[in-house]
Amino acid sequence: MTSDHDGPRTPQGSGSPPAPRALPGLDTLLPATAELYLDLHSHPELSGAERRTAARFADWLAADGFHVLRGIGGHGVAATLSNGEGPAVLLRAELDALPVAEQTGVPYASTVTAPGPDGRPVPVMHACGHDAHLACVAAAARWLAARRESWRGTLLVVGQPAEETLSGARAMLEDGLYERIPAPDVVLAQHTASFPAGMVAHADGPVLAGSLTLDVRFEGDGGHAATPHLTADPLLAAACTVTRLSTIVARETDPAERLVVSASSLRTADAGHTGNVIAAQAVLRVTVRAFSEAALDRAALAVERIARAEAGSAAMPPRVTVARSSRSGVTVADPDVTAAVRAAHVAAFGPSRVTGWPATSATEDFPLLTGAGAHLHGRPGIRGAYWMLGAVGLAQWAAAPGTGAAEKFRSLPGNHSSRYLPSVRLTLETGTTALATAALARLADPAD
Prior knowledge:
Blueprint: H1 26-42, H2 51-63, E1 67-72, E2 76-83, E3 88-94, E4 113-115, E5 121-123, H3 130-145, E6 153-160, H4 168-174, H5 177-180, E7 186-196, E8 200-202, E9 206-219, E10 223-224, H6 234-244, H7 246-252, E11 259-268, E12 277-278, E13 281-290, H8 293-312, E14 319-328, E15 331-332, H9 335-349, E16 354-356, E17 360-363, H10 374-377, E18 383-392, H11 394-399, H12 405-411, H13 424-442
Parallel strand pairs: 3-6, 3-7, 7-18, 8-16, 9-17
Antiparallel strand pairs: 1-2, 2-6, 4-5, 8-18, 9-13, 9-14, 9-15, 10-12, 11-13
Helix pairs in contact: 1-3, 1-13, 3-13, 6-8, 9-13
């Protein structure tokens, strides 16, 4: 999930599940999977710089007999394993990490720093679980590759770069992803969240919100801080815009329609650290979350209207330009595919470990890989399923303050926290089983 989003909310009916019933042979696969996970966690890479991560993932898949393509849309990896006539099923995971300083205290914690977008070094951490996603996909691919007698069709695996910046899926598609591998019938993915490890959660309807990021640029004359009356002050106009953004939700949006509008950063472009200079330029970044494309567009127009009004109210108004820097669609799992996958999960885990999931305002670029992204790949028939994977160790969940799931969730480190840390064994066992059984539910049965 992108770094602009809120963390997932607690699912309905979470509890403390028993240990998962492992897939046959999973016990022998788990040590290598855990080793891969720990290595990825210790060596995170920022969006667009996932060279080492991609190489490890690609080498793993190549060793299992997949035909592997590297460097798609940046450091993207795509692998194909053909096994007779049948559907094409794609398992997708993400390669990138976040600019977060890890504070988990575990021996395998990241101490990595890397150049950020402005060239200055930043800490790097897998604070969103992408390392677990990759390890689970790699393990599920290995398990399925070793059991080709149990399915027919084509198994596809994608390691996507730059999910946190909502640019990786688009980059892979524009680089010909679905021309370079068989176009899938179904795309499957999962995401870790702060509910008990050993469980999975499915949504009825939207899983994640769509998002839109706006860069609002205010350009004035700047000048001396001692004579503000002689300047067209872009920083003041930007600051006034921030204070007015809350009215878009409070006064312009139906209370029944979920919408989030947040100012996520405000920076001046040329004042540096000098206190006696009023900057000539200020850039305000605004993120919008909603569950329909129409709501996103309405909110974007409202942000622009407010920015222009605030700038225009000054005696010497700064100029305003608005650019849309990224956008993702609403993640809505296909109901038929989700029903089949959920049934497979109930069969594998038992009904007590498969729960519901309320739609959250977190966001993803996963929809671009399905029919929602047909404008990029021209294949509207691609369907998807997306579920949440519990990642909190059972002892940690039990010890968390609160009497119910909602209270416990609020007290636990969530995605993008410097203390976010999945339970290794339970998360990898459950995530691998969830992906493998979901894939089998969509691949052809050799007995048919």
